[in-house]
Amino acid sequence: MSRVGRVLQLAVVATAAVVLLLPWAATATDYKVGDDDGWRPSYNYTAWATGKDFRVGDTLAFVYTKGKHNVLNVTGDDFKNCTASSNSLLRDSGNDVITLKTEGKKWYICGVRDHCSKQQKLVIEVLQTGTPAGPSGGPAPALAGLAAAAAAALVAAMAVL
Ligand SMILES: *[C@@H]1O[C@H](CO)[C@@H](O)[C@H](O)[C@H]1NC(C)=O
Ligand SMILES: *[C@@H]1O[C@H](CO)[C@@H](O)[C@H](O)[C@H]1NC(C)=O
Ligand SMILES: *[C@@H]1O[C@H](CO)[C@@H](O)[C@H](O)[C@H]1NC(C)=O
Ligand SMILES: [Cu+2]
């Protein structure tokens, strides 16, 4: 193979590697709802969610003593009323991990007695997968590193010419 052919091959391989690695560079975040307080009444989940960057692919873990609480995904209207929705999925394992699969608002309540009206409810806004806009965004440095590596590979390829 000619030298130019080799260089082109190298450039193609470097580019392909970067394209293939991009999805993995944007790592998902696993959130424990309420952090050390877990899932319980009389905790401000709005304050907990404030400033967090929820993305498609991230997970929410609702952790509580099995039998004492549960988790129902509900519509926005039912969230306000603290009522279950017709298509709510009841989760009650005590360690309910939910993967955020789509963008948009997601509403969760506890369906046990009056817990929901005692603040045991969470609403979040899920954004598309990608580089967080926040100042201390996690995956951003990894992406920058990959871009730099790709650039270096291409420069190296040029130098061979
Ligand atoms: C919960 O926190 C939010 C955001 O910090 C605040 O606006 C709201 O008033 C708080 N709710 C209660 C009941 O303290
Ligand atoms: C609750 O989650 C289930 C399973 O993902 C889904 O089929 C259902 O539509 C959801 N219901 C609401 C009210 O979001
Ligand atoms: C919410 O509650 C109000 C008052 O009880 C009721 O009129 C309304 O239909 C309820 N909305 C939903 C979505 O259940
Ligand atoms: Cu509860």
Automatic annotation (TrEMBL):
GO biological process assignments: response to symbiotic fungus
Major location category of this protein: membrane
Coiled coil: none
Gene3D superfamilies: Cupredoxins - blue copper proteins (2.60.40.420)
InterPro entries in UniProt: Cupredoxin, Phytocyanin-like, Phytocyanin_dom
Signal peptide boundaries: 1-28
Transmembrane spans: 142-160
Keywords: Copper, Disulfide bond, Electron transport, Glycoprotein, Membrane, Metal-binding, Signal, Transmembrane, Transmembrane helix, Transport
Pfam family, one: Cu_bind_like
Highest taxon of the lineage: Eukaryota
Molecular functions per Gene Ontology: electron transfer activity; metal ion binding
Protein name: Phytocyanin domain-containing protein
Lineage, broadest ranks: Eukaryota, Viridiplantae, Streptophyta, Embryophyta, Tracheophyta
